[in-house]
Amino acid sequence: MKITVMTADEQILSLDVDPHETVENVKALLEVETRVPLQQQQLLFNGKEMRNFEKLSALGVKDEDLVMMVSNAASSASSNDLSFNQDGSAVDPGAFQQQIRNDSNLMGQLFQSDPELAQAVLGSDLNKLQDILRERNKQRSEYKRQQEEELALLYADPFDVEAQKKIEAAIRQKGIDENWAAALEHNPEAFARVVMLYVDMEVNGVPLKAFVDSGAQSTIISKSCAERCGLLRLLDQRYKGVAHGVGQSEILGRIHVAPIKIGNIFYPCSFLVLDAPNMEFLFGLDMLRKHQCIIDLRENVLRVGGGEVSVPFLQEKDIPSHFLDEQRHSKQASGSGDVLTSGTTGKSKTVSTGGQSSGNARGDTAQGNDFEAKVAKLVELGFGREAVIQALKLFNGNEEQAAGFLFGG
After folding, report:
1. Cys staple from 245: which of 190, 202, 338, 341, with CB 3.0 to 4.6 Å?
2. CA 244 to CA 327: how far, in whole Å?
3. Which three-class secondary structure state does DSSP give residue 43?
4. Within 10 A of 56 (CB to CB), how many other CB atoms are there?
5. Which residue did the predictor score with more confidence, 39 or 25?
6. Mean pLDDT of the 248-269 span
7. Which cellular components does GO assign to this protein (predicted)?
8. CA distance 245 to 108
């Protein structure tokens, strides 16, 4: 069908369009004809604004009907100080900044609604101000797009499967957003960074900041730290192996006993020595149990020996900055509840927390013909080799349970 479009400067255009065309597509055609950007166009039919997502037929537009096009380009060009580019940045950021500064009421409202933008207006970095304005424009555009999509879904065909999927996703997202808003209001501390637990200790007379981790099966010391504490000469290399967790690290051996000082009392401690340059000393569950330690988060202290010694956990300012990254490496080195290494004989074994053996340190079982045959069979089903090996180890070589786990994932 053909429609007639009259512009604000009384230019008359004739467009050949489909009745089911969206208003946004009509604006795109008009942008080519009039050079007026789509974002600056406002189309009116029978005195009512035509929204981008609406279709011509739904609005009642018929063949030979008249549509008015109003451009807001002229009005935006006439306001010098507060005019904006299409990306949301100010045309004249200096003038924009000065005008906002001169309006005390507006500045007060801005500090309440958008403190970051208010600080940028008061600052001297115009580039930062422009970046924030662009970001706010992007957020507004995204919000407007979401609103238009929600309105479009209200008029969608109830028997359209894709439309129903979008409605379901919108309802789910609304629930997530409400949950997030409730958390911000009632549980804002959940969004703060959690600082891990560190205490001051001495290992063989050397002061250290120990990372207390009840999720790690064993107490761990790095090779460099053991050398600094004068303990490397006691390393028993018969306990070599590999510690598996989020990542894996080589176990160089075990130091069977050495003194550690917590508070003013000495306690015997054993360590696994890892080749982990990013991790220094981790006080694990084995020694926490042995010395009857209590992690008291109410008083923010570690109680040792059933309470005979109490040492405070360090505040964030007292923890060296590189230790904050060390938390991640410590988890990788220790396994932290996934798979750790233990050794009661000359061979170290990797043992899962469920108590199932997953093979000796040399991986003899993993290299067996039967194991490889199971791997090949599951790989043929379309699973990755690494995922298959992990699943078989998880279920102690049981092919059916591993397959069920892979299909379920």
Report:
1. 338
2. 16
3. strand
4. 23
5. 25
6. 90
7. cytoplasm
8. 52
Confidence of residue 407 (pLDDT cuts 50, 70, 90): low
Could you give the CA distance from residue 61 to residue 210 in angstroms, rounded to a whole number? 74
Which DSSP letter does residue 50 get?
P
* Residue type, position 377, single letter: K
Backbone angles phi, psi at 303, to 5 degrees: -100, 130
Whether 90 and 32 have beta carbons less than 8 Å apart is answered as no
Select from 324, 292, 315, 322 the least CA-distant residue to 305: 292
Beta bridge partners of 257: none
**Rounded Cα gap, residues 25 and 52, in angstroms:** 8
**Catalytic residue check, 213:** yes
Amino acid present at 28: A
Tell me the pLDDT tens digit for each residue of 300-345. Answer: 999 998 888 999 999 888 887 766 654 444 444 444 443 344 444 3
* Of 81, 87, 200, 213, catalytic: 213
In degrees and rounded to multiples of 5, residue 13 shows phi and psi of: -125, 145
CB 130 within 8 A of CB 116: no
Task: Please provide residue 330's backbone torsions phi and psi, each rounded to the nearest 5 degrees.
Answer: -65, -40
Cβ burial 311-348 (10 Å sphere, 16+ → b, else e): bebbeeeebeeebeebbebbbbbbbbbbbbbbbeeeeb
DSSP 311-345: EEPPPGGGS-HHHHHHHHHHHHHH-TTSEEEE-SS
DSSP for 151-201 reads HHHHTS-TT-HHHHHHHHHHHHHHHHHHHHHHHHHH-GGGGSPPPPPEEEE
pTM above 0.90, yes or no: no
Q: Give per-residue pLDDT as tens, 195-234.
A: 889 999 999 999 999 999 988 888 999 999 999 999 999 9
pLDDT digit string, tens, across residues 333-369: 444 443 344 444 333 333 333 333 333 333 443 345 6
Within 85-125, where are the H helices? 93-102, 104-113, 115-122
**pLDDT score recorded for residue 235:** 93
